[in-house]
Structure formats: C-alpha cells, structure tokens
Amino acid sequence: MADNIADNKLDWFRNAKYGLFIHWGLYTIPGGEWNGQLAPHGTEWIMKTMRIPLKDYRELLSRFDPDAFDPYYYVRRAKEWGMKYIVLTAKHHDGFALFDTKVSDYSVMHTPYGRDIVRQFSDACASEGLTFCVYYSQMQDWEDPDGNGNTWDYDPACQDFSRYFYGKVIPQVRELLTNYGKLGMIWFDTPYDMPVALCRELAGTVHACQPDCLINGRIGYGIGDFREAADNAIPLLSRSDPWESPMTLNHTWGYSRRDNDFKSPRQVLENLVRVVGKGGNLLLNVGPDEHGMIPAKSEEVLCAAGEWLRVNGESIYGTSGVPDFPYLIPWGGLTYSSCRRTLYLHVMHYPSYPYRLLLTGLETPVTGIRLLRSGAPLQFMQSYEPARDEHRLYISLPEVCPDTDDTVLAVSLSGPVSVQKI
Ligand code: JFZ
C-alpha cells in the first residue's frame, strides 16, 4: 500500500484521517418536526420530505438567531477530539446560505442573527490551525425556481437549470473561494443527472480560484480529487487511492429533537479504525441546535473517542491502508505505518483465558510487540506451517484488559508488511 505517498495537493488530506462535518441551516430550527409531524428521515431534508411550501419554510429566516454560537468553541473542541479539518454546510439543498452572498437574499445576512457564519469558522480555523472546508449543494436548491428538487412550488417543465447554474452556483462558489481565505476542500453533493460538461466547468471554476482546493467525489463522474463513499458506508476492500467516508453520530445530519440513538465512543473508534485501516478518512458529523450549540450527547461521544486518540493517535495518524488479510479479523481491526514499519492491532473484543490473540496471514517477520498505551513488551510466537501453508502469530495478552474500547498492540516488522493471499 502506498503510505502517504501522494502529490502535494492531497498530502494534508491523506494525513488528516479524521474530520468534523457540520450540518447547520434553517432546517435546524424545526429539528425534524413540522406542525406536529415527524420528518420521515434526514431532518435537513424536511422541506422536501414534508413538501413544505417555500412561503412557509422561508418564515424560518425570522427565527434564525443562534444566540450561543461560538466558532472557537467548535474549532477548539474539534482539535481536542483529534480532528484535523472541518467541513461546514455553506449551502445545503434548501438553498439557504450561511455566508454573506451577494447573489441571493436567502442567507444568514437576512436573519435576526445577521452575521457571516462561514467567515467566523474560516477565521477561527485559520487562528487555531485547522483546515477549513465548505459543503456546497450544486444541483439541488429548493428555494430557486431553476434549482433541482422543488416540485411542489415550481413546475419542473419551466425550470432552466443552466440559469441556476450560471446565476447562483458559479457566482456563489466563486464567492466562497475568493472571500474566505484558503479552503482545504469544497464538498459537493448529489450531482444526480447534472450534465458532465457542467460538472467539469464547476471543477474548472474551483481550480481557477484556488488550484490547491480539493474537490470531493460528489462533484460527479470521477472528476473529484478523491472518492466519497456512500453515507455511513465503508468499502469492503482496502484502497491505496485517497477516499473519505461521511458518517452521522445518530441517524440524521441536521439537528433532531427526537433522534437520540447516538453511536457509542466504541462504535466511533471501530469505524475510525476500519476506515483508516482501508486507507480512508472519517468525516464525522454534528448537527448544531437552534442556539448554535453542539448537542450534549454528540460532545460526550466525541470527547471520549478523543481521549482514546490522545493516547493511541500513533496508530491512526501517519498510517495508510493495510493490505487485505486473508481472514476477517474477529477481535478488531488493523492499521499500518510503512515509515514506522509497524502494524497496529486494534483489539476491541478482548480474549478470555488464556488471553491469547491469533493473527493469521502475516508473512513479514516480527521483531517485537508492545502495548501502545504503556510500551510494555508482550510475548509472542510466530510460525509457518508448510503443510497447511499457514502463517500464524500468537500474542500473549495481560489478564486485565488495558482499554475496553480498543487495546492497541504495536507490532514491529523486519520490513514492509507482506500478507498471504489464499
Ligand atoms: C447527501 C445529502 O442529501 C444529505 O442531506 C447529507 O448532506 C449527506 C452528507 O449527503 O445524502 C446522500 C448523498 C449520497 C448518498 C447518500 C446520501 N449516496 O451516495 O448513497
């Protein structure tokens, strides 16, 4: 697996491993409920899923006033949690802009709050040394008569998408790439059946404004700088090209008054190890509430996962995809650093007596194994049985599990990792 060998433009992304996604907009205010009815899914889709007339949805402008919002709180917490970049929804599918756009009055500047939220995050990230990125929905726009998706206020037959594309998308993307400093990435979404020529033109606009600004895979047709996995999805096989998996903490991107089914810290770590072990980045979401605050449960989970990362970050940062082992790993997952010639075993299901772990398929000779947290050396036995063509590594573990969420063993190798193919 290529380990962080990448052209300069992608280096920061490959090394980041972990980012904070922020879904925030007018949909935050209803939080998944409208006139006593619950939105069927995705609170940020409430206008479409409940076919809310634009004249009613626009009323939310007068209620957008996040009195407790502090951008530095978000950026400092993201750093504490081990995240290296932030992706903020500058404009989601409802068409509402969190920035001071001159293209449309459908923005945060026309609310009681009246301040540029993209600007505040951009400044805070620059000040705190985090990479700032923006999400932009380039096809769906349920406010604009020529945007895709609002079939209950507008007649699709009368829509002229190119009028929307050249009248709103290109000018707003230029505003984002011109007025908010260096962006790490622009995160496009749901290209649907957008003509490939327009996707290429959009990419050209990004490159013309900021050549080093990455474009995610959802610009469409493989034009992006890296592949975007489906929501909450992890590829089966490891990949050497850069990719990212966007994930929710509960079941919705936008804030929800009802959905309290949050992933545990352990589930977050399992996903992080699986994604990083296959060569990807995990982009994990929070949906601020109407006061501009991070939901308490989100903070609790991300804080606990961040504690683990503070101690075990060596097994995540500076690693790359692990070659696919011949058997599923029943006790956890693997990450690998070629520059440190170290394979990290993430033990999430700790063995009972006799406290012995087995890894099958590793061909590279092992020179030593230690508990990452304490550095304590561990006894191990490595063997190869020709008759069964089987490489086995047995490791003796302490009786008391050092870390119930994920105990990391650092396996030092005599050379580049080599895995048996069966
Ligand atoms: C999209 C948005 O519709 C959603 O609101 C959220 O912003 C999410 C991050 O992105 O949802 C998608 C887009 C693509 C897939 C699934 C959901 N997909 O490719 O399976």
Any idea how many domains?
Answer: 2
Order of helices and strands: HEEEHHHEHEHEHEEEHEHEEEEEEE
Strand order of the largest sheet: 7-6-5-4-1-10-9-8
Question: From the 3D coordinates, which CATH architecture of the largest domain would you assign?
Answer: Alpha-Beta Barrel
Bound molecules: 4-nitrophenyl 6-deoxy-alpha-L-galactopyranoside
CATH homology superfamily name of the largest domain: Glycosidases
**Annotation, overall tally of beta strands:** 17
Please tell me about this protein's structure.
With 422 residues, this protein is α/β, with parallel strands linked by helices. The chain has two domains: 2-315, Alpha-Beta Barrel (TIM Barrel); 332-413, Golgi alpha-mannosidase II (Immunoglobulin-like, Sandwich). Helix content is 24%, strand content 21%. The protein contains nine helices and 17 strands. It has helices at 8-16, 46-49, 54-57, 71-80, 117-128, 161-179, 196-209, 265-277, 296-312, and strands at residues 18-22, 33-34, 37-38, 85-91, 131-137, 185-189, 214-215, 227-228, 243-247, 280-286, 332-337, 342-347, 356-360, 366-371, 380-385, 390-396, 407-413. Helix 4 crosses helix 5. Mean pLDDT is 96; it is low at 1-6. The structure holds 4-nitrophenyl 6-deoxy-alpha-L-galactopyranoside.
